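Forwarding these from the shared drive since the link keeps breaking.
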Amino acid sequence: MRKKITVAHSPDADDIFMYMAVKFGWLGQDFDFENVALDIQSLNDKALENFYDVSAISFALYPLIADEYALLRTAVSFGEGYGPKLVKKKDKILKKNFKVALSGAHTTNALIFKMKYKEAKIIYKNFLDIEKAVLEDEVDAGVLIHESILDFDKSLCVEAELWDIWLDFAKENLPLPLGGMALRRSLPLSDAIKIEKILTKAVSLADSNKAILSKMLMQRKLIRVDEEKLNTYLNLYANKNSISMNELQLKAVNKLFELGFNYGFYEKNIDVKDYLIPLEYEEIRNS
């Protein structure tokens, strides 16, 4: 009997896209994978509870769960010249203590926002409800994420790109770490290595078969956007750089952790390479 592994991810297009090669049975596997789709803050909250075997998380959350979860190299989303957007009504002038809607306390966009706008009054909402909150004057502004950055009401304008804010803090041109995947340390290391390899292959297959998989997702009505926006979004957040983190991406994650530590969000500064699954274990074991 195969072991059941629960993989939790967000309902946005890139997470679904990167997971569905597993769901559709495109690769042989040693586990029965079961998936759960939740908004990013719910995923972060569940990770704090050590709830799911494998979970999508905000990179900014990771130092808070590092003792319970290893960080996977695969199924990652980075902004490179783009990212979440702080939007407001075009006629709105933001005061220092403006009221803003964010998608969750432990998201990367929240971390960067808090470093920049220290006096803002924050409320947290499901990312799907943020645009509406701005339009109905529940808040003065909101940070849009996921597909929302591609198409929002014409009465709104971009006050700030979080990409630009990130570059100001990072002091160098590094990709913006947004979403990653974490795996529970309670799983046997041999299983952890196999799971990371399966998910890496799934993301690689998805990227190589983007047209076929996109059509399948559209036919099953698993995506909230039309085909054109889906292709645009996947090119941004689910691409060859999502398959396995490279050295520049790892450097960017470390910079995020360093900034979070320097601004008092984490108790200690950690090096991401110390928290990845040691793939070399399998080679040593089989040698």
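-- next protein --
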Amino acid sequence: MSIMLSTPSVDELSPAAEVLKRWQYDGGPLHLHSGDLGWYSLSGAEATAAALRMWSRDGEVLAIGLLDGPQLLRMAIAPHWRDDEELAHQIAADVDEPACGVLVRGGATVEARGAEPLIQVLLERGWERDDPWTPFHRTLSDPVEDCGLRIETIGPDRAEEWVTVHWSAFRGSTFTDADRRLRVGRWLAMAGGPFYGDARSLMAFDEHDNAVAVATVWSAGPGRPGLLEPMGVHRRHRGHGYGTAITLAAAAALRDMGSSSASVCVESSNVGAVATYASAGFTPSADVADLRRGPRG
């Protein structure tokens, strides 16, 4: 039977997440994680389902892609199918044909970590390697050292505090009332969605009880790597080691959830983030690069 491309329904989101969990293992590539679906679900369950693409044969899911925007496809391929040439050629053909409903025509990016045959096929079709990213991992076989700050797990009743720090960390612009309502609404949609049972949202406080940093962690189940996504420090409180502290707290939370290790990937050019994860005991792996197609592709 041929390889079929489909978009799941909302009811198929949880099964898709379970598939992605099974594909996570220590020593494997830091590819699309169930936590990536969880963080994307800020947009709601319907939008998350609409952004997924699944390649299957005879009822078995072989690969899952998340359209993190119309020009970025983030992939994971089943470990025992990762080296399959037929699958690599089929995904590449679907990616390059706008009528298939994966990527739009023109400039685009594919994240396909660990899927070497797919990478090679895309390169042969004229795609190029993009800027490097650095995967980081920390084993959780031993207890994580105390981070030195008060850490709280944040629930829906305190979503506004969490999103305020996150906005400052990643936006830095004025947080208007409209922005606040939108972001809190999205956070609540995520927390009420099909993925958040595997997550914890954390907030760190300094000695003056100022909220200084936030993070969310996502488990893939006991004995499997968990994901840290996102982590940010309030713009007014940078330079005090709070990024390292919240990262340690995130690793400790994942260990409490049964994760075997903690993982995160950052742009290699982001020297501050690279230094933060290293200082929190995360070990870098070899750089990886996405694949980029020019605007005339």
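The radius of gyration is 19 Å. The chain has two domains: 4-130+288-293, 139-284.

- D.
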